[in-house]
Design brief:
45% helix, alpha/beta, single chain, Rossmann fold, six-stranded parallel β-sheet, globular
Length: 138
């Protein structure tokens, strides 16, 4: 019996980043990108409708920023695990993002090596924070 794929929604307003994330996840066995949206308000609507297993979410989004979108998504689709993907390194922003119930935070500059391990860690019930952010807080 084949296990059903992990359903992932990508929320990113820059097309190149959206394509990068999609291709990384699409090429991984067991993952399926079910939706790609480019603003926070649309993300909340689609999350409530699709209830994906995971949401890869940028912070700097039009209409509604990623942190506020994550708060709303936590109410609409509480089973969806949220992983932030942003280049914002401000530790107050990182703390605020994680306070939404998100399970991980990956810096875009580290995505090539950290995105897939972060997704797997979060899906497995753990948390993840980019190595460079860990160094900044130690």
């Amino acid at each position: 019996m084949q296990k059903s794929p992990v359903r992932i929604m990508v929320v990113e307003d820059h097309e190149i980043w959206s394509q990068f994330v999609h291709s990384m996840l699409h090429n991984r066995n067991g993952f399926r990108v079910v939706c790609e949206v480019s603003d926070g308000l649309e993300a909340t609507l689609k999350a409530g409708e699709l209830k994906p297993d995971m949401i890869v979410l940028d912070i700097g989004l039009p209409t509604l920023n990623g942190i506020e979108a994550a708060r709303r998504i936590a109410c609409l689709a509480p089973q969806s695990k949220i992983l932030f993907l942003s280049e914002n390194r401000d530790l107050d922003v990182v703390r605020e993002a994680m306070s939404t119930g998100a399970r991980g935070y990956v810096l875009k500059s580290q995505a090539a090596t950290e995105l897939l391990p972060a997704v797997e860690n979060v899906l497995g019930g753990g948390t993840f924070r980019s190595e460079r952010l860990k160094l900044a807080t130690s």
